[in-house]
Each structure stands twice: as C-alpha cells, then as structure tokens.
Amino acid sequence: MPTQEHDVSAELFRWSPMLAAELLTEMGVPLAEVRHARDVSESFTDFKTKEYTADAAIVLETSRGRTGVVVEVQRKRAEDKRWTWPLYLATLRNRQRCPTVLMVIAPDPAVAQWCGLQIDTGHPGHTLTPLVLGPGHVPLMKDGTQVAADPAMGVLSALFHGRGEQQANVVQTALDGTSLLAESSVDRARRYYQFVQAVLPEVARNTLESMMRTELPYYDSFLADAAAKGEAKGEAGGRASSLLRNLKNRGIELSEEERERILGCTDTMRLDAWLDRSLTVQTAAEIFGRGDE
Question: Is residue 249 part of a domain?
Fold first, then answer.
C-alpha cells in the first residue's frame, strides 16, 4: 500500500516537472537544453482487462526534441516491477513518440541496490538498467535560500539526508526555507512544508513542528489552512476516482487529455456534475458541457 512518503515523492514531479531534468543531469544522463517540462498521464493501460500505472510520467521538451521520463518510487523489493517497468517505458515511448528513460527513487540503500539490477527483456541486445536516484545525486541543502529557489529539490534533500548526522541541518533549512517561501507565496510554502513533514522521520518531524510553533507567529493559521486545503483536495480526488471508475465500468474510453482534465479538477461541484453525466453519456466528450469550458 502506498505511504505518505511514497505519494509525496511522486507528487513532487507533478508539482515541479523540471525536477526530472535536474535529477537526470545529476545522474549523468546527457540532455539537450531543456526548454519546458510537463507531467503527462502515468497510466499505461492499453487494454481494458488490467490497468498499469506508474507513479509519475514527465515529458521534457529539449532543444533536440522530447524525452519521456517514467518515475517510480520504490520502498521495498517487488519482483513484479521487473516485468512492468519495461512495459511502462515502451508504452510511454509509443504514446509520446520519443526516447524514454526510467528513474527509480529508492531511499533504502538495500532496495536501491536491487532496483539497479539489469532486467533482461529476452530480446538480444535489449537489457534495461534502471536509473536509481541516490543521496549522491541530491544536494544537501544547508540554506533556506536554496529551498526557496528550488523547493521540490529541497523536499528530496530532506528525504535523502534527513535521517543521518545532517538531520539538524535539514530541519533548520526546512524552517528557514518555509519562512522565505511564505514571503512570496503562502500556498507554495504550505505545500513545501507538508511535503517535508511527510518525508522526514518522526523525531525530525516533531522537532520541525516545535520550531515552527516557536519561531513563526502565524504557524497555527498556516497549519489550519493547510489542513483545510488538504481535505478539499482529498474530496476532489475521491470524486475524480469515482468518475473514472464509472466510465471504465461502462466501457467508455478517455483520451489522455480528458483523463488529465478530470484528475486535475479541484472544483467539487463541477466534479459532481460530471459524475452525474457519467451514468448516461455515450462518449467521454459528453461529460464536459458548454459551461465547463
């Protein structure tokens, strides 16, 4: 079952798609100049019988064309992944008509070592070696200004460096980063803080919360707003999942754009209207009325 740490690690790439380019560069993957990055559907289902879904999928627009990135967050060994990972790459490559790479985030060293093992696909000359993100690929951020400039990387810094001897530095940097982010965008600061709290170990998480309460006078209202927003997002996500399930059960296929539109909607009233329509429509396009444009 996915954990909060797992979900946040994947969500980082939807929050900041350019993070994929930063990390691939750190891992030694040659990329042309990246001009744009966007997240795309992480579902790689082509048949109605079974759904295959990666944790995140990103398309990088570079000066030499596009590159697709499949992101997987792995907290334990799972032999099934050695069969589904090649499928993810092949499906994204076919869908986007571009080269694709697999990047695995595995904070546990033993799991990371297993993830990096070659996968023999059976075709001569075709062996897949996953790119496994490790602590050496993620900079240890020691200054709040670094977090303010790149909060998504700041979360990964907390994930990979927040459990050892650098824990105190990580917590102080998270506090400073949250404060600096709040000066320009409270929403951005709130999301960063929520993500960091999800990936830090319990002791560090409690220390950060205590420091926030002591040093940031607006902390209580900050946290209350975060809880309210999180609850609203959860409600929207539940409605979107129900809508997708209704369409799937009725055999109605969705384009990638239609699926992304449903999953990206946070308006619960609009999602309720779409849910009602999903019971009677004959095509996915009928879900979206004129008033929804």
Answer: yes
DSSP calls for 153-204 = HHHHHHHHHTTSTTHHHHHHHHHHHHHHHHHH-HHHHHHHHHHHHHHS-HHH
Say if 222 falls within a structural domain.
Answer: no
Distance, in Å, from the CA atom of 110 to the CA atom of 121, rounded to the nearest integer, reads 23
Split at pLDDT 50, 70, 90, the class of 276 is: confident
Domain range holding 271? 227-292
CATH code for the domain of 50: 3.40.1350
What pTM value is reported for the model?
0.72
Assess contact for 182 and 189: CB atoms under 8 A: yes
pLDDT at 219: 67
pLDDT tens per residue across span 241-256: 888 888 888 888 888 7
Q: Are residues 50 and 174 in the same domain?
A: no
**Tokens read off for 222:** 């900050």
